Amino acid sequence: MYLSKEEERILNGEEGYARQKSMEILASLGDIYGADKLIPVTSCQIAGASYKTIGDAGLFFVSEFAKTSKIRVKATLNPIGMDSIGWQRMKIKKEFAEKQLEILDAYLKMGIDCSCTCTPYLIGNRPDCGEHIAWSESSAISFANSVLGAKTNREGGPSSLASSIIGKTPNYGFHLERNRKAGIIIDVKTEIKKFSDVGALGNYVGTIIGNKIPYFKNLSLDSDKLKSLGASMAASGSVALYHVEGLTPESNKAIDDDLEKIEVGKEEIEESKCKLNSSDDMELICIGCPHCSVGEVKEALNIFKKEGRTFKGDIWICTSRYVKNELERTGVAQELEKYAKLLADTCMVVAPIEDNYSRTATNSGKAAVYLPSLCKQKVRFGDLESLIKDFN
Questions:
Q1: Any idea of the CA torsion for 363, 365, 366, 368, to the nearest 10 degrees?
Q2: Roughly how many angstroms between the first and final C-alpha of the chain, as a whole number?
Q3: Domains, the chain
Q4: C-alpha angle 26/156/203, rounded to 5°?
Q5: Residue of 222, 260, 216, 217 lying closest to 241 (CA atoms)
Q6: Are 40 and 168 in contact (CB under 8 A)?
Q7: pLDDT tens per residue across span 150-184
Q8: CB atoms within 10 A of CB 92
Q9: Per-residue confidence band for 210, with pLDDT thresholds at 50, 70 and 90
């Protein structure tokens, strides 16, 4: 991979340890994947923030970087393992909280926006179509590539952090137009309305197509459900980019006539829902994976009010600090707290929920995939309305 004279100086350590290590990461990636050069990025989204997932080794890594480095482009942080303000409400152990706050402090010292969300596009980090970025959370990558038309590869936490420090990323993969074409057509033959339907569709498609780029026909979803679709496909497969006919910005140029076509009907959706279920009982209902928008929280509140009662266990609604502040400003958060806990900065997947729960219910296809393996949970999967009706 070609390096400019300035990039070579950084690689040789002439601008300090953190920038040298960052350039080493990017140069190695470029060499592995056959990039011709580094290209500028306009924003980064950095994973590797929860103490649960990165542990003491990750804490040491980011703390060392924080001693000498500052970011060069806009960067936001992924969810951490707890609500940074209300962690006691989650029954988080003090020792965990102290380590988590150390990680958060290290990222803050580097100048990173520690809003701690997997939906940075809902809090101002929203790239335009065609912009090159370096994002690392799987659902955020999918939304940026697919719904916004920005260009990012599936970055890891270290590589996205390196890009934020250097301001560049290797030019390969989804940064190249030729790699953004659809590889398979998904013809949807049933109505997809609820979040659980979207999660089941994404789970089914992700499982059968691997890393191919799907092109959906006969699918009409709002942005919140497109967010959920991408998250589910990224969790069940390796899908980082998809197209929806008439909805996503690159759909009119992403398809060829001779692609394989798969039809997905009601039978496949129900089959997928069954596979995501491993429990009839539940101790915790949790939504917000990816983080809920203002609209999703309001929709949940309407469901709670319609049911008109309190529930036998805990309910978590996970969102960003920005969205929570907006909901508090308008009074929605205060009303919601009559029924559920509105949590910021975290989600059920990266929090240590296994310390207090063993059976979790969700309407998220992504969470339903990760909860058994990452959190030792039995999962009840379904739409929120049906879940709370049984939560008595």
A1: 70
A2: 60
A3: 5-177 (3.30.499.10), 181-274 (no CATH), 277-389 (3.30.499.10)
A4: 140
A5: 216
A6: yes
A7: 999 999 999 999 999 999 999 999 999 999 999 99
A8: 21
A9: confident
